[in-house]
């Protein structure tokens, strides 16, 4: 089943608990949490204490997207803080296979993220290890950027490989997703679809979540 993951990067951090509760009541099952270190990307977000607090107020699956130069050091810390799944960027992992297995051994699902400029083929040797692959459809660092259409070509290529190899990993997409293009992402083969500003920068995030999810469901039902 396709899941829409609200990204709290665009939520009002002073009312974070309420914002999360609203999308949870609207039917969200997973929440996307962006962790930025000001080095891998030119922005800073939040750390383990905030993840710990979020963990206390929600049962949603916490999907952590680590935009950090040193994910090996911090992945265990965030798992301890309550993350259910952790994705690391291919671009910073010298020993990607080891990092993914370490995340799994610490008890979380392990994902790998590709920047828009990183080819899908760089993952060929770890596709049988990953629990999910996240295709960035913007350059990471900020919410509210414009969708890069080439991401859909990458999703289709990955979906084809998954089918050919008979693997089960999930395909996630992140950046610039809205009511207008969510159906395209579903038809390309995405299972998990992140949406930040298109949900939280609206008057009624819960209602917007429901409408985006509805559009995703309709696209699923007409997928051949
Ligand atoms: C960007 C982050 C995204 C961000 C997406 O670096 O990884 O998760 O929240 O925001 P929107 O949906 O507004 O593009
Ligand atoms: Zn993200």
- CATH-defined architecture: Alpha-Beta Barrel
Oligomer: single chain
Which small molecules are bound? D-xylitol-5-phosphate, zinc ion
Order of helices and strands: EHEHEHEHEEHEHEHH
Helix content: 25-40%
Major sheet: 8 strands, parallel
Shape: globular
> What is the mean predicted local confidence, pLDDT?
97
Low-pLDDT windows of residues: none
* Overall number of domains: 1
Distance between the termini: 15 Å
Let me know the number of strands. Answer: 8
Q: What's the CATH H-level superfamily name?
A: Aldolase class I
CATH topology: TIM Barrel
Give the class from helix and strand content and strand pairing. alpha/beta
Q: Provide the β-strand percentage band.
A: 15-25%
């Amino acid at each position: 089943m396709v899941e829409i993951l609200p990204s709290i990067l665009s939520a009002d951090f002073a009312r974070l608990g309420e914002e999360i509760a609203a999308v949870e009541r609207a039917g969200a099952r997973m929440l996307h949490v962006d962790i930025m270190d000001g080095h891998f990307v030119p922005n800073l977000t939040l750390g383990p204490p905030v993840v710990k607090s979020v963990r206390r107020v929600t049962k949603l699956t916490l999907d952590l997207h680590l935009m950090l130069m040193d994910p090996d050091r911090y992945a265990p810390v965030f798992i301890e803080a309550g993350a259910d799944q952790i994705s690391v960027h291919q671009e910073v992992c010298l020993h990607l296979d080891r990092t993914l297995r370490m995340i799994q051994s610490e008890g979380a699902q392990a994902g790998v993220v590709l920047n828009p400029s990183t080819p899908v083929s760089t993952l060929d040797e770890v596709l049988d290890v990953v629990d999910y692959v996240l295709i960035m459809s913007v350059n990471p660092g900020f919410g509210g950027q414009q969708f890069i259409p080439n991401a859909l070509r990458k999703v289709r290529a990955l979906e084809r490989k998954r089918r050919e190899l008979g693997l089960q990993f999930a395909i996630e997409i992140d950046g610039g997703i809205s009511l207008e293009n969510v159906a395209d992402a579903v038809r390309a083969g995405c299972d998990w679809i992140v949406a930040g500003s298109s949900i939280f920068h609206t008057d009624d995030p819960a209602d917007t979540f429901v409408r985006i999810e509805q559009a995703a469901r309709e696209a699923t039902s007409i997928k051949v």
